[in-house]
Amino acid sequence: MTVKALLFDVFGTVVDWRESVARQARTLMEPKGITADWTGFADAWRGKYQPAMEQVRRGGRDFVRLDVLHREGLTEVLKQFRITGLPEPEVDHLNRAWHRLDPWPDAVPGLVRLKSQFILGTMSNGNVALLVNMAKAAGLPWDVILGAEPAQAYKPMAQAYLISVDWLGLTHGEVMMCSAHNSDLLAAQACGLRTAFIARPTEYGLRQDRDCKAEHTFDVVSESVLELAHQLGC
Asked: How far is Cα of residue 54 from the mean position of the Cα atoms in its chain?
């Protein structure tokens, strides 16, 4: 292959957002006597993600950082779960739970191996501050932060992928998009990028019914970041 850079989807592919958000909500709330289905809380909050971004994609509002969309979604989910009375600093702290997500066990060792031969970067809908803070907290060895905020466009808009390739000074075929989401890879593939599917069949829990496997033809199909490193000769 002529691939020189690997760009990763982050939420779900590299980090376990569901259990991380649930754990942080539980840690904040339960000492206050507030109990809930915290994985359900995380799922409900994540459920606000795509509809909020779609408003931006369709031109219904100007581009705003994901932190802003997360904060708006959190306000709705707190109401849905009838959680009231949290001081604003605590709500803001909870909103930044997305800055503190835990990596899947294979992610960091796999990325370290890949970094020995490839440029590593994000191709995420997360904003730059979110991704930088997450990298520091989780030990993610990115060379560069790319994606929605630099491109001012949310995936799967072509602009998100194409501007990232341009910023690296590479051709489309020299960049491989790595993701646990079939639709993400199809969008990257349509832009001329190479593609690698990384299976995360429990991203949404044990009853996950989508993205459990590669559903299309991609350049590489793997079960983990470590396996991807092995397949790419690292």
From this structure: 16
CATH code, domain with 199: 3.40.50.1000
Largest CA distance in the chain: 56
- Mind listing the pLDDT tens digit for each residue in 149-187? 999 999 999 999 999 999 999 999 999 999 999 999 999
Of 231, 227, 230, 225, nearest to 111 by C-alpha is 225
Count of CB atoms within 10 A of residue 22's CB? 21
β-strand pairing of 175-179 with 5-8:
parallel
**Is the same domain home to 219 and 151?**
yes
> What's the domain count of the chain?
2
Dump pLDDT digits (tens) for 101-152: 999 999 999 999 999 999 999 999 999 999 999 999 999 999 999 999 999 9
Of 64, 79, 100, the one marking the end of a domain is: 100
Residue 28: give its domain's CATH number: 1.10.150.240
Whether 150 and 163 map to the same domain: the answer is yes
pTM for the model: 0.94
